[in-house]
Specification:
Elements (H helix, E strand, L loop, with lengths): L17 H23 L9 H17 L5 H15 L14
Helix pairs in contact: 1-2, 2-3
Length: 100
């Protein structure tokens, strides 16, 4: 199981109403499960800490939700940069050249 990281957005109060706290915990669990499946399938990097990756996804969603003015272009940019950063890196190519 992935260690729990509190993915509360900066400036947001921790805790809050019990329903909000329960929904937040459920969302973190769903994101952790989704990322674990993606990691196992080789769809995202395995060198990043799973808890950190969960926070990155959560904070990106928070930034998108808080962006003013709301913009499809900005949303696409956030998601593209996040996904590019999570994409596995191709193995280093051995060109056969030696450094003498």
């Amino acid at each position: 199981m992935v260690a729990h990281v509190d993915a509360v957005a900066p400036g947001a109060q921790r805790g809050g109403p019990p329903a909000t706290t329960a929904l937040r915990a459920e969302l973190v669990q769903v994101v952790e499960k989704m990322l674990a499946g993606a990691r196992e399938a080789g769809a995202i990097r395995t060198d990043l800490d799973p808890a950190l990756t969960t926070v990155l996804v959560g904070q990106t969603a928070y930034a998108i939700a808080r962006a003013q003015p709301a913009s499809r272009q900005l949303t696409d940019a956030f998601v593209t940069v996040l996904m590019d950063g999570l994409r596995p890196r191709p193995p280093a190519r051995n060109t056969g050249a030696s450094s003498a």
